[in-house]
Amino acid sequence: DNFYVDDFARFTTLDSKDKTAAVANSMTYLTKKGMSSKEIYDDSFVRPVTFWIVGDFDKPSGRQLLYDAIKHQKSSNNIRISMINNPSEDPNSQNTLVAKAIWAALQTQTSNNAKNFITKMAKEEIAKAVEAGADILEFAVGGMDINIFKEAFESPKVDFILSHAIYCRDVLKLKKGQRAVISNGRIIGPLEDGEMFNQDDFHLLENIILKTSGQKIKSQIQQLGFEEDLASDLVMKVDALLSAQPKGEARIEYHFFEERYSAVKLRPKEGETYFDVVAIVDPVTRDAQRLAPLLLVLNQLINMNLRVFMNCQSKLSDMPLKSFYRYVLEPEISFTADNNFAPAPIAKFLDMPQSPLFTLNLNTPESWMVESVRTPYDLDNIYLEEVDNVVAAEYELEYLLLEGHCYDITTGQPPRGLQFTLGTSTSPIIVDTIVMANLGYFQLKANPGAWTLRLRKGRSEDIYRIYSHDGTDSPPEASEVIVVLNNFKSKIIKVKVQKKIDMMNEDLLSDGTSENESGFWESLKWGFTGGQKNEDAKQDKDDVLNIFSVASGHLYERFLRIMMLSVLKHTKTPLKFWFLKNYLSPTFKEFIPYMAEKYNFQYELVQYKWPRWLHQQTEKQRIIWGYKILFLDVLFPLAVDKILFVDADQIVRTDLKELRDFNLDGAPYGYTPFCDSRREMDGYRFWKSGYWASHLAGRKYHISALYVVDLKKFRKIAAGDRLRGQYQGLSQDPNSLSNLDQDLPNNMIHQVPIKSLPQEWLGGETWCDDSSKRRAKTIDLCNNPMTKEPKLQAAMRIVPEWQDYDQEIKLLQGLFQKEKETGTPAK
């Protein structure tokens, strides 16, 4: 009884668990002293290590793996071996001669006879002779029952091979012909073509299994008195189950000697079974903020005896907590009286101090992209003394992230610059992304449903092919990778790619990387865009001036609108503004389409989730600084050759087309150095002494208020990956990168060169003398550390045209509000 393995039609109806059970129950094993099975009595020895050898035994690589396993077995009585055939081609009676011979011997012969015959079949010269037409019976060993073997071998049925093949595909996730070794449920593989797994490897694997679990499980099962074969099966199955469990810390019973003054206690309901819960926290840490609401919700769900011990630090130089925290977590789904869902859960902050200036921020799961959708308030600057009622804000889960890591199997390195697209059957390209060199990381915005991941048409698809993938919902060899998002947890996949044979010497980021530019980032409806129809990307590249900026809070959004207007007033070149969507207010996002229509410019709101593996910043301002420099290579489509960053609080007085066309002399970006003409500020020029003076070695320290990036060059030299790598090291020290967005590129000036722009590109009263203001092409309203003058007041005083721009924008906002209220265009 081969448990459906000999009946392919029935085997295909089984689920993965039952397929594994059927294969396991049908196995006949080779051992050192012969062969073990449920029908044949063995030598009364429990073998704690089981090897299933997976491969195409009609190919040299599969036979070699089997032969090495059998050779190792000669030196060990702890192992038993069986085989799973994974054919490279659709099996028939003619192309599976060796596999059929092995199977026939296992089914019909006894002990040493079968083992000796299979060892012969695994030898290359004999297998070649059989394939060349030699009579299989020429290689029979002494004592074999020839007639019954011949009958089994000559049977036209290949159901067992078909069953093994589908098991390899559906359960083991192997491609056709791939090899693997399965030891007590652990899959070692797939083994790459040409990869050796020899006797030494089998010896090492056996020792690992024995020492970690096999010997212990064997000793326990032997005490139960099972027959030897059943006992060996039980060792294999128990070890497989235990090894599949996540490893956790062992429970430690600890008795507290004193809890009268150092613990908060919540007693359980009397007369009922309860859980004993002990929490140990430092009460003034972020972890304590998160733990407290979890314990309160848990207390509503179960009957528990709760003790919370305070593990405080004896001395603190500074208050570690600078925030109020609420965890939005409900103990159960709630309904209204008419059986509808109750309103969404909310976070309430009550009895808050009135005088501090607050910022509202969210901590969300890593795979969520959440945005504020409704609030009239400036969530970056909440001053409760000036609020008449409640400050309310509504947030929305906008996207779920699909994350992944990609590697080239030939080099073992990430294929930086490789592009993936994500779409559906009806819309093949909805979002797309670029692979980083850092860990081969990529991310794509999606929503619940089934998605197809593909290499993007163009150089990515021309040079590479998808070799295999893991964590997906399609067979591993499928070139179109299906990914199903069916819950709110993180979905992280692994993709291996390989260069095509005729493309081995091609560089993905060579000068030909105009990756189907006319279609790149067809995610317009996914990253909110306006004012543009699909036009030729080449035209866009040559004629459009791309301006990137970031802002957070109503004040800086006011500055941002004025900066945009100053740019528009000084150029006739078509403009496209790029804004970081993550921190824009609902008010700004509602108004920007109207402004784009009135002033005839294009815009796009771009997003990128800070990767979980990259050191996280906790202050919103530092997060925004990070976005200015760390993700330039992945924020924008490849069709954009150059991007200009202009700070929100800047006033432009010239045509920025001149800066876009400025020759960077091969550098990936150009920055303006800090002015040094206002002498009274010398005491604040920290870069003139200490670390910075030594590091820069006579070079200028550059300001990040205005810069131009040659994105083509930036990606080609992996500047983004280098900057992220340096950031990861430096940011662990809280005293490093105090001005993240400008300290990082200045620190990396030796690895990622900076082209110094002429000084007149950035003027400002703080660092430049009064005479330079007349020549300045842009005015930067940076903070003055000496006078600490409020920025709004400084803008009105320093830049005469600022108030005119401000009034023009206010007039436009008034028209917008009137049209919104009346539903008709205002005149």
TrEMBL record:
Similarity comment text for this entry: Belongs to the glycosyltransferase 8 family.
Superkingdom classification of source: Eukaryota
Reaction equation(s) it catalyzes: N(4)-(alpha-D-Man-(1->2)-alpha-D-Man-(1->2)-alpha-D-Man-(1->3)-[alpha-D-Man-(1->2)-alpha-D-Man-(1->3)-[alpha-D-Man-(1->2)-alpha-D-Man-(1->6)]-alpha-D-Man-(1->6)]-beta-D-Man-(1->4)-beta-D-GlcNAc-(1->4)-beta-D-GlcNAc)-L-asparaginyl-[protein] (N-glucan mannose isomer 9A1,2,3B1,2,3) + UDP-alpha-D-glucose = N(4)-(alpha-D-Glc-(1->3)-alpha-D-Man-(1->2)-alpha-D-Man-(1->2)-alpha-D-Man-(1->3)-[alpha-D-Man-(1->2)-alpha-D-Man-(1->3)-[alpha-D-Man-(1->2)-alpha-D-Man-(1->6)]-alpha-D-Man-(1->6)]-beta-D-Man-(1->4)-beta-D-GlcNAc-(1->4)-beta-D-GlcNAc)-L-asparaginyl-[protein] + UDP + H(+)
MF terms in GO: UDP-glucose:glycoprotein glucosyltransferase activity; unfolded protein binding
Location of the protein in the cell: Endoplasmic reticulum lumen
Keyword Nucleotide-binding: no
An example Gene Ontology CC term for this record: endoplasmic reticulum lumen
GO annotation terms (biological process): ERAD pathway; protein N-linked glycosylation via asparagine
Predominant place of localization: endoplasmic reticulum
Protein name: UDP-glucose ceramide glucosyltransferase-like 1
Cofactor: Ca(2+)
Keywords annotated in UniProt: Endoplasmic reticulum, Glycoprotein, Glycosyltransferase, Signal, Transferase
Native species: Cariama cristata (Red-legged seriema)
Keyword Ligase annotated: no
All copies of domain Glucosyltransferase 24 catalytic, residue ranges: 545-810
